[in-house]
Amino acid sequence: MLKQALTQRQLQRFSPLQIQQIKLLELPASDLEQRVNRELEENPALEEEAREEELPKAAASEAPPAYRLYDGSRTEGGREQPFDGRSSAGFYELLRAQLALRPLSPRQRELGEFLICCLDTDGYLRRPLRDVANDMAFAEGKEVAVPELEEALATVQDFEPAGIGARNLRECLLLQLAAKEEQSAPLRLAAEVLRRAFDDFSGKRYDKVCAALGATEQELAAAVSEITKLNPRPGGGLGEEVGDTAPTVMPDFVVEHRDGELQLSLTTGNAPSLRVSDGYQQLLKSYAGNREAVGFVRRKIDDAQWFIDAIQRRYITLSAVMGAIVARQRAFFTTGDEAALQPMLLRSVAEDTGYDQSTISRTVSGKCVQTAFGVFPLKFFFSESAKTEGGAEVSTRAVKLAIRQLVDEEDKRSPLGDEQLAQRLKAQGYLVARRTVAKYRETMNIPTAQMRKEV
Q1: What is the pLDDT of residues 267-291, one digit of tens each?
Q2: Is 143 exposed, middle or buried (0-12, 13-18, 19+ CB in 10 A)?
């Protein structure tokens, strides 16, 4: 039986102004200018003023380092820092150009063009030729036999770069070996490895490869060396047009080491400084007898003042949070040594600043800092702790660096298993269980010992 009853519940609801303030806090420096310009367009009571070089005093008092506003458009010491990227050539156009130079019949040229369109940006034909034939029948209304497609595919596979049009990795590597002009003994053995022992080679079971091919370890090592020189992605992911580049990343903060002290600056990019329009203030007085007009003008002025205050609060919050990060990670910002990073959680910065953890999370999300050692996302500085033999806490990043160094220096003929890595770490003073080593290794994309083995 249904019953109705009155109950009281306490719910936390954000006002529209609070929601807007949260969104402003989440904005990275690269998007701030766009958001400010949009507000300038929508609210005539808001206008630009000359940029002030100093941050409001409240910001400097809430964080340890010294702060100043930082114009990201300046070139010296403050230029935008791009992440690694590269422009890409017209991959598909390159293939079509080679197709046009071949003496082919119209039918063969048409099939070649269709196959080129079916390649992914790595240069592979991932679909069976039967499915390609069905696609052509559906899209072009033309029937084509699989043998015809095989002949056309052989033409495409003869294009540069070598390996284009392969249907799997083994075929891709074999195409590249076949394209080499000089067929030395290591190259011929490399082709045999791929044809007859590909699975054992992929699993690095080199003893089985040697047994299957009757090769010595030295001969196999030379063949493997040739294989590792090949390109598993002949398309290189270059399916985009010429001129497409990785996006430029503007740092939200700049940390500089000057006169033995760390100085922290906030990046504003080209976002203008703001003020409430004097003209609108005068307009409010002139409409004194018109309640509706006064109400409209008052709302615009209030909205403008709120937006200015929200921008200022954004700077104050960013300053306090980044200041706490710099204070906790001072050793890293001074030396650039990742091993110097200290364990730090969102909760730690929340305790230092007095802000809620959700505020800290919004502040660091999507933002980065420029240092003398490169540009780092703020999340880079957060990590859990691990114990040393002396009971001290160290960042898990230091443990990961130790694992990486051990793997880099190991004998690749007999790589270290997770238990061996745990023992080596213990010898360095890190108390880490084998399963923890495995977890860290996987997060760093380090293969298992078996997969790291070399001849």
Answers
A1: 876 677 888 888 877 777 777 777 7
A2: exposed
Report yes or no on 239 lying in a domain: no
- Of 197, 228, 259, the one marking the end of a domain is 228
**Total-model pTM:** 0.55
Burial bucket for residue 364 (CB in 10 Å: 0-12, 13-18, 19+):
buried
Sequence-separated (6 or more) residues with CB below 8 Å from residue 372: 255, 256, 257, 336
Instruction: Kindly compute the dihedral angle of the four CA atoms of residues 159, 164, 166, 172, in this order, to the nearest 10 degrees.
Output: 100
- If one counts the domains in the chain, the total is 3
Q: Which tokens in the block code for residue 95?
A: 């293939």
Residue 64 forms part of a structural domain: yes
Name 36's Cβ contacts closer than 8 Å, sequence gap at least 6. 271, 272, 274, 311
Tell whether 389 and 358 lie within a shared domain.
Answer: no
Q: Are 334 and 257 spatial neighbours (Cβ–Cβ below 8 Å)?
A: yes
| Amino acid, res. 221 | A
Range of the domain at 289: 16-80+249-378
- Only one residue has tokens 């294989």, namely 227
Q: What's the mean per-residue pLDDT of the chain? A: 80
- Helix, strand, coil share (%) of the chain residues, nearest 5: 55, 10, 35
The predicted structure's pLDDT at residue 86 = 34
Tell me: pLDDT of 71 over 50.
no
Compute, in degrees rounded to 10, the torsion defined by CA atoms 39, 41, 43, 47: 90
* Together in a domain, 23 and 113: no
Residue 195 — very low, low, confident or very high, per pLDDT cuts 50/70/90?
very high
- What's the CA gap between 427 and 416, in Å, rounded? 14
Q: Residues 95, 235: contact at Cβ < 8 Å?
A: no
